[in-house]
Amino acid sequence: MSKQKGFTLIELVVVIVILGILAVTAAPKFMNLQGDARHASLQGLKGALQGASGIVYGKAAIKGIESTSGAVSSGSGTDIQTQFGYPTNDGIVNALADTGDWISKISGANSTAERIFTFKNYELDSIPNSCYVSYKQAASNGKSPTVTIAVDACK
User: Fold this and answer.
1) Residue of 47 and 97 predicted with greater confidence
2) Which of 11, 12, 81, 103 has its C-alpha lying 20 to 30 A from 138's C-alpha?
3) Alpha-carbon gap, residue 63 to 76, rounded angstroms
4) Residue that wins the pLDDT comparison between 128 and 109
5) pTM for the whole thing?
6) Domain coordinates of the chain in residue numbers?
7) How far out from the chain centre does Cα 20 lie?
8) Residues 6+ apart with CB under 8 A from 36
9) Which secondary-structure segment (H or E) carries 44?
10) CB within 8 A of 101, min separation 6: which ones?
């Protein structure tokens, strides 16, 4: 009698079942790629807002209005309104290059006002899953504007 080597059918079925269970438990981790991509886009927008406000502050400092309010040129024919040298909630829109990928609105009033940016395919009045970046203008001299991403952005 010869001794056969290899796997039995039962062993192969057990391995296939185990692999199936692993695939089912691991697949949801990789299925949220769209949410991760949107979150990464918001991170990029946050950086663009911070960079634009820094550039505007530099222009305001050159013009000598970094501690007051005024307007600086964006270089494309529009003026950027500033407060304490940084763009206001309305001025930040002019500071960003118009890519057409974002929509924005003012949320809140007076000292709590901030500009909300989100993807152009979302409704501004009902942004899904808190998927936005907010920009709040500088509140006093020496303070920079606050740029934050929603806590559960696009997850």
Assistant:
1) 47
2) 103
3) 17
4) 109
5) 0.76
6) 32-149
7) 36
8) 154
9) helix 33-63
10) 119, 120
